[in-house]
Design brief:
Elements lengths: L1 H6 L2 H24 L9 H6 L2
Organism: Rhizophora mucronata
Protein name: CMP-sialic acid transporter 1-like isoform X2
């Protein structure tokens, strides 16, 4: 698996990492916002968490 990742371009790895990171953030935001009724996809929320 590591060798396979090593053959991939930096752009491909960056895209996959961005998708994974975005997915993790989305899940955490949804779980946090369930109680507050806010938008899980607001940019303000993302910027607050750095």
């Amino acid at each position: 698996m590591i060798a396979y990742i090593g053959r991939m371009s930096n752009y491909t790895r960056l895209v996959q990492f961005s998708i994974w990171l975005g997915f993790c953030l989305m899940i955490s935001e949804v779980s946090l916002r369930m109680d507050h009724g806010g938008s899980a996809f607001s940019m303000d929320t993302v910027s607050q968490h750095g």
